[in-house]
Amino acid sequence: MAEDEVVGLASDLIRIDTTNTGDPETLIGERAAAEYVATKLDDVGFETTYLESGAAGRGNVFARLPGADPGRGALLIHGHLDVVPADAAEWSVHPFSGTVQDGYLWGRGAVDMKDMVAMTLAVARRFRRDGVVPPRDLVFAFLADEEAGGSQGSHWLVEHRPELFEGCTEAISEVGGFSLTVRDGRRLYLIQTAEKGMAWMRLRAHGRAGHGAVVHEDNAVTALCDAVARLGNHRFPPVMTDSVREFLTAVGEETGLDFSGDDLEGAVAKLGSLARLIGATLRDTANPTMLNAGYKANVIPSSAQAVVDCRVLPGRQAAFEREVDELLGPDITREWVVHQPPVETTFDGDLVAAMDAAILQEDPGARTVPYMLFGGTDAKAFNKLGIRCFGFSPLRLPPDLDFASLFHGVDERVPVDGLIFGTRVLDRFLRSC
Ligand SMILES: [Zn+2]
Questions:
Q1: Distance between CA atoms of 376 and 382, rounded to whole angstroms?
Q2: What sign has the CA pseudo-torsion 37, 42, 43, 46?
Q3: 170 and 188, same domain (yes or no)
């Protein structure tokens, strides 16, 4: 039974430390995790492909399950195997223990996203063992390097091995499908239909080099700091994209909160633990994160640099750049260090209907709603192949759990019954997709 083994699979995966610091020198565990996944799939008769993406140890695993109608586009089910670092001293349990206690499975990756990897494995194993033929081809992909942006993971694979995803027209993965309790027993399930773009920008100011003790008009450090402060203090205008509007309309209907007035932010603040997440999808952001200039206290350098983390809403790139250029002025140059455009799809069609039906069969009286993720996922890579991407990793959560804070947080954990619920939903969904 898939429900019986999902907790064990997730626990095993958590015990394989796959910390991704972003520094390839410190890599551990991705190969071991990929080998674990491959073995679990091989055991039940899948033909798996193991592949390293761009560097030794960056393990990825692929498997296909043929569907009843090969004429239909395949569904890609992808999940990343790496996790962000965890400091054991801060945790109640060891972050790589995979302990089950108090109704939760604890550990780094419990919600991001070894839970979904385990659910996918459990359902894939059941389908293969029981000879289940899904309506269309399913492509399972278990990936490296999501937590550092995927340049040695999904983006590398899309660039160098696109044939692995041949025929895939739609995809599911993180971050969506989890429940939000709006009132007594009434749950919304948030399905991710969009994510903001990620654009890391390098700024440069140029000036005249000189002695630090003289009167000096043309200082690159001063010019850069002025520009960085203007940008960092700037508030971009609120913009309602379709997915945010649909989400807020649904929440408004369920809670009586009014999101149509002038004080949109005040209304969003009442969403409790979700306020920060949703608030970040109401406008573009540009947060300065790195500064670099000079080499000696008494030498004015001829240039200075800064890096700004920009997150841009769908449809806003050109307007965003115009606004940035106005703030920076003519003397600051800028270039994109990383530029991954936003992803957005509509909340309609057969796949959405199948997600909705699978959730409602397991949680009658619930409601599915679209929403936009403020961060980035591997969907950005697969979107480049024209694949329609959704965040759908179903989980039923207790009403008081601050789910958003568990991502990359201390004491990351997932409710065991939520994981079993999610496996049942995923099973139903993949049989009807
Ligand atoms: Zn993730």
A1: 12
A2: positive
A3: yes
User: Residues near 214 by Cβ (< 8 Å), separated by ≥ 6?
Assistant: none
* Residue after which a domain boundary falls, among 292, 307, 340: 340
Boundaries of domain holding 252: 198-340
Distance between Cα 305 and ligand 1 center (Å): 30
Boundary residue ending a domain (305, 321, 340): 340
In whole angstroms, what is the distance from residue 97 CA to residue 320 CA?
Answer: 44
3-state SS class at 91: coil
Q: How far apart are CA 95 and CA 92, in angstroms?
A: 8
Distance in Å, CA 215 to ligand 1 centroid: 51
* 82 catalytic residue (yes or no): yes
pLDDT along the chain (433 residues), means of 10: 89 97 86 98 97 94 97 97 96 96 97 98 98 98 94 96 97 96 90 95 95 92 97 94 92 88 83 83 95 96 97 95 96 94 95 98 96 94 97 96 91 97 98 96
Catalytic residue among 12, 112, 137, 146: 146
CA atoms within 13 A on the CB side of 245: 8
Those residues with Cβ within 8 angstroms of residue 243's Cβ, 6 or more apart along the chain or in another chain = 193, 194, 281, 344, 347, 370, 371, 372
Quote the number of domains for the chain: 2
Is residue 168 within 8 Å of residue 91, measured between CB atoms?
no
User: Shortest CA distance to 81 belongs to which of 28, 135, 122?
Assistant: 28
Please indicate, yes or no, whether residues 331 and 418 belong to a single structural domain of this protein: no
Q: Do residue 41 and residue 160 come from a single domain?
A: yes
For residue 146, indicate whether it is catalytic.
yes
Distance 83 CA to ligand 1 centre (A): 7
Ligand 1 centroid from CA 82, angstroms: 8
Which residues keep their CB under 5 angstroms from ion ligand 1?
112-113, 174
| pTM of the complete model | 0.92
Asked if residue 311 and residue 396 are part of one domain, the reply reads: no
Question: CATH number, domain at 91?
Answer: 3.40.630.10
Distance from chain centroid for Cα 425: 20
Cβ neighbours of 52 (radius 10 Å): 16
Strand-pairing partners, residue 370, are 191
Q: Which two tokens stand for residue 269?
A: 């603040």
> CA angle at residue 60 from 57 to 61, to 5 degrees?
135
Three-state DSSP class for residue 164: helix
3-class secondary-structure state, position 255 = helix
Q: Are residues 333 and 265 in the same domain?
A: yes
